[in-house]
């Protein structure tokens, strides 16, 4: 096994996930021989931000936050002899909400073991927000709002650059999530331009900021993508730039833990999140 853990895992606290209980994920991780698991549930969105998805189900409810933290902490103690469990979040970087994100991190940072900073929300030309990965149908509507597929891609990578550079305080997540998530519907909506150089510049910035990269296998199982986020050519470039590469399944069900890891390039050494020293 050339990986030791799954570092991007969701739970039953995710409104758009399954009802699998957290202990089921842990027991499955142990059965797979994993030594570590990071629960990176979607952090509650800023209270002054309106979730643009039809079901308002992009992230954990604020009312569940304390229970989530308490449950993970309890299970960390219960299973500490069998597997290392990391309490964490996947934070949405939303343009214009840096202070709200920083405030959340300041409040929860002392208990966070691991975290991911991702972009799912884009600001459209009229100043409204859209969720780029909700559905192919919604992505088609987003294209209409922006005027072309390429303009959506450009806004995604611009927002991702903002996330990488953002000053979110001392608890800013040290890993950038699925940097090619915009390709989720690429078999159906293909841009005209090649964004290889754009992505390489983002990798350079990730390296300068000393951040890690989420190597996310979920895209392999999306019918309009069927590729890792990011694909192997980008993984190789990141590797050569010295960027820490951390594998995650982005699983929303216990049975999907480490799914697709057998398709990760074995010749690349994958990392693990650094141990916290301030707990």
List keywords for this structure.
single chain, histidinol-phosphatase activity, four-stranded parallel β-sheet, 279 residues, TIM Barrel, alpha/beta, Histidinol-phosphatase
Kindly describe this structure.
By secondary structure, this protein is an alpha/beta fold. The chain has one domain: TIM Barrel (Alpha-Beta Barrel). The chain is 30% helix and 15% strand. It has 7 helices and 9 strands. The strands form 3 sheets. The chain has a 4-stranded parallel beta sheet with strand order 1-2-3-4. A 3-stranded parallel beta sheet has the order 7-8-9, with helices on one face. It is globular. The model has no long low-confidence stretch (mean pLDDT 96). Its EC number is 3.1.3.15. GO terms for molecular function: histidinol-phosphatase activity. This is Histidinol-phosphatase.
CATH superfamily membership, which one? Answer: Metal-dependent hydrolases
- CATH C-level: Alpha Beta
At the fold tier of CATH, the topology name is: TIM Barrel
> Total number of helical segments?
7
As residue ranges, the low-confidence spans are none
Q: Main β-sheet: number of strands, strand sense, barrel status?
A: 4 strands, parallel
> Going across the major beta sheet, what is the strand order?
1-2-3-4
Beta-strand percent range: 15-25%
Overall mean pLDDT stands at 96
Q: Please give the share of residues in helix.
A: 25-40%
Please give the number of β-strands: 9
The N- to C-terminal Cα distance equals: 30 Å
The CATH architecture can be named as: Alpha-Beta Barrel
Shape: globular
What is the H/E string?
Answer: EHEHEHEEEHHEHEHE
């Amino acid at each position: 096994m050339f990986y030791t853990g799954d570092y991007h895992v969701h739970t039953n606290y995710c409104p758009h996930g399954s009802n699998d209980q957290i202990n089921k994920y842990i027991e499955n991780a142990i059965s797979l021989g994993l030594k570590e698991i990071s629960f990176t549930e979607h952090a509650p969105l800023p209270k002054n931000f309106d979730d643009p998805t039809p079901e308002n189900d992009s992230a954990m409810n604020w009312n569940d936050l304390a229970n989530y933290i308490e449950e993970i902490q309890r299970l960390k103690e219960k299973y500490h002899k069998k597997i290392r469990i990391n309490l964490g979040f996947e934070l949405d970087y939303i343009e214009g909400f840096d202070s709200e994100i920083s405030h959340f991190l300041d409040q929860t940072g002392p208990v966070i073991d691991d975290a991911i900073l991702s972009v799912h929300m884009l600001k459209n030309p009229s100043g409204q927000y859209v969720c780029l990965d909700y559905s192919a149908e919604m992505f088609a509507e987003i294209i209409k709002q922006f005027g072309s597929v390429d303009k959506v891609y450009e806004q995604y990578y611009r927002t991702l650059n903002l996330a990488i550079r953002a000053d979110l305080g001392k608890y800013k997540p040290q890993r950038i999530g699925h940097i090619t998530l915009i390709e989720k519907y690429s078999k159906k909506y293909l841009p005209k331009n090649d964004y290889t150089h754009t992505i390489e510049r983002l990798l350079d910035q990730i390296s300068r900021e000393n951040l890690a990269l989420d190597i996310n296998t979920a895209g392999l199982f999306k019918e309009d993508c069927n590729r890792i986020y990011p694909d192997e050519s980008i993984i190789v470039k990141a590797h050569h730039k010295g960027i820490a590469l951390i594998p995650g399944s982005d699983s929303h069900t216990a049975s999907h833990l480490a799914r697709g890891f057998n398709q990760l390039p074995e010749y690349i050494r994958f990392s693990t999140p650094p141990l916290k020293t301030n707990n």
